[in-house]
Amino acid sequence: MQQYFCDTELKIGSEYVFTDAQAHHARDVVRLDHETVRLVYNEKGFFGTCYAKGKQFVCMVEKEDPRMNELHADITLCMALIRREKFELVLQKATELGVSRIIPFESSRCVVHAKKEKSDRLMERWQDTVHSAAEQCKRNRIPAIMPVASFDDLMNISDVLKLCAYENAYGTSKTLSEIYTQEKSVAVAIGPEGGFSENEVEKLQDSGYQSVTFGSRILRAETAAFYACSVLSELTDGEKK
Question: Which H or E element spans position 76?
Answer without folding.
Answer: strand 74-80
